[in-house]
Amino acid sequence: MIPEQSPKARRIAGRKLKILDAAAAVFADKGYQRATTREIARVADVAEGTIYNYFGNKQGLLLGILQQIVAETGDSIAAIEADDVASLVEQALEARLALSKKHRMLLTFLHEARLNPEVLTFYTTHLRDHLLEVMTERITILHQLGIMRPADARLVARIFLAIVIGFGVQFELGDDAFLAEETPAALARGITDVLLNGLQKPPVGENT
Amino acid sequence: MIPEQSPKARRIAGRKLKILDAAAAVFADKGYQRATTREIARVADVAEGTIYNYFGNKQGLLLGILQQIVAETGDSIAAIEADDVASLVEQALEARLALSKKHRMLLTFLHEARLNPEVLTFYTTHLRDHLLEVMTERITILHQLGIMRPADARLVARIFLAIVIGFGVQFELGDDAFLAEETPAALARGITDVLLNGLQKPPVGENT
Amino acid sequence: MIPEQSPKARRIAGRKLKILDAAAAVFADKGYQRATTREIARVADVAEGTIYNYFGNKQGLLLGILQQIVAETGDSIAAIEADDVASLVEQALEARLALSKKHRMLLTFLHEARLNPEVLTFYTTHLRDHLLEVMTERITILHQLGIMRPADARLVARIFLAIVIGFGVQFELGDDAFLAEETPAALARGITDVLLNGLQKPPVGENT
Amino acid sequence: MIPEQSPKARRIAGRKLKILDAAAAVFADKGYQRATTREIARVADVAEGTIYNYFGNKQGLLLGILQQIVAETGDSIAAIEADDVASLVEQALEARLALSKKHRMLLTFLHEARLNPEVLTFYTTHLRDHLLEVMTERITILHQLGIMRPADARLVARIFLAIVIGFGVQFELGDDAFLAEETPAALARGITDVLLNGLQKPPVGENT
DNA sequence: GATGAATGAGCGTTCATTCAT
DNA sequence: TATGAATGAACGCTCATTCAT
Lengths: 208, 208, 208, 208
Prior knowledge:
The structure is a homotetramer. Chain A is mostly helical. Chain A folds into 2 domains: 7-64, Orthogonal Bundle (Arc Repressor Mutant, subunit A); 74-197. Chain A is 77% helix and 0% strand. The first copy, chain A, is built from 11 helices and no strands. The longest helix of chain A is centred in the first third of the chain and has 28 residues, at 7-34. The mean pLDDT of chain A is 88. Chains A and B meet through helix 1, helix 7, helix 8, helix 9 and helix 11 of A and helix 1, helix 7, helix 8, helix 9 and helix 11 of B. The structure holds a DNA duplex.
């Protein structure tokens, strides 16, 4: 499974990772535009020129980080095993919110995707569409099982996406006492409750 | 009541607006960082120096645009008159989504707020907190009227905010066929339905 | 003697003076280059454009100030009446040092003269040469009277000039505790003593 | 003792010197403010950005030149060996006047020191105070040896400084036929004579 | 492969001067 | 005559990228 790596190959791979980590840290701090290759090199403890041995240009660093996050995230949603819908939704939301908090690069990514076709394509293809697809699939199944009422799966998927993005952005902007004191898990629970049961008082009976 | 404005005063006010409009257009196109005062001046059809007669620096343009949007938006939410909750929520959502679509600067604003304390303060104070407050108020009233079930008003307000931000971002990134063909009104209706009635099939009775 | 001035002419002359005073203040503070016509206008409480009704350009302000100082200084040296050399020299020195302290523009003038032929010509012609001439004359007379020993009058004049400039510069740079606590009069007395009697212990007799 | 310098290190040191020399030439020509980094780069035959690899900003160039001059000047005064006072004073004066003539930056330095606290500090600390100290020391010794009559050493030191500055300034302004035809040595001799023996005809005896 | 000095186009901003009002 | 908004060339400085070592 693990490819036999020569020490040299391993050293090289390590260096690439070190540069990516440095870039991620600097991008998270300064955003893409304001981050300088000089600072990334300093943080990675390599020379500026070395970066260009591994990445064609600054944008390559961004795409490299995206790739890493996609790989890391993997099929975490598909992998979720849950007995009931509430637990499923909750776990999925929690995982995404935790990711946002960890990388602190959501806004930089989205903003760069907005301005840069190549980054947009990567984001759209590898992150958004994948997410929408997986969610649409799950939702459709839940519809068919009669667990969910038949709303438009595409809309529901986009509502989920909006919530993940919206809370991710709010996390990154910080400065919100309420969000700061809630754990992602607790938030996910609260959001899940609203999404599944709605805000309206049921006409007669009780909910859950 | 309306002050008689001299032609000169009117010309000056017009010029300031022209510069702001140009800046808004260029920011929407290129983002804040990549936008140059050179291009803004060109689009506004003034000399570069003229910009600095009206705004202290580039950031002043950004804050000026924000101010304009805040003024324009006003208390549009508070002003909404609606007989039922669904209609209220729907109108509020629709207004916000339309704004996002019109200005196409949400991501640039949020991103800049993430990096720039002054912009963050403006955003937080004049936009986010105002929105959260108005919404929390409305929600609390609906709770008290027994129309809404008693969820945490602060969380609900943040869910609304997340949805507005999340859909605004998705609009701006474009490239989503589903969103492109839906009107803000239709989207707002769909989202409202999910938020009020929930996704789960009610145990026995009907919804709506 | 005083020309009949119409009120209008007086107002105009007053304005010109106000602008010159403002320019002198700003030049003394910021130097010529860093002084802006905007600030001068602000200090003079006129519009920027008004300056150009009275002076062709920024340099005109500098020459105008020089002219004013020359007029003010006038033939103050020639006017000095003194019984003995010591008193003469002392009064002349004191007057110059006081001027330096008052206007705080010596360095700015000299520096600008160094760079700007027109300013140099003015300075050379109206200030330096006049000073050298008056001094050379006085010195020659003192020689002839047998009061001074026969040194080269041109050199002696330049030594005086050097001392006036040198102390003026030291005043302007500030930061010298010794100079700060001495009055121009006391300094002039000390300098005069050295210049007249020399630093060397006389072979036999006493001095003064 | 002398470190073996790699060719690269030597090239780099050479470049830094080349930039400093270019800056000194342009500053001497245009003054500090009017000198542009563009022109300095052109004269040094490097790209504009290269300057900033060696100096943090334009002011760094000025301080770099000052440092160089200080280093070059070193303890030249302390190093002077002379049998008699006249020769000592003469050599010290001559050295300073020659420096002024060589660098042609005295006025620019002084003017900039007047306006810029950092430059003032450098000037005060490394040039003026050092000079005053060395001179005060020498003078005190001469007093104690009974060679000089007991004038205030602090005043005498400042008179020397004033003369050095005053003649330096007159050199730089040029346009003085008398100064142009005198060598620094001859001038120093003449000035020394005046300073040591005074201008006044001694009451009875002769001087030196 | 690693280095980091060199590059130079391009940035935000300033300010003396002009001129329509 | 007084105004001050408009101008635009020019400034100091940055930084992604290259390439000789």
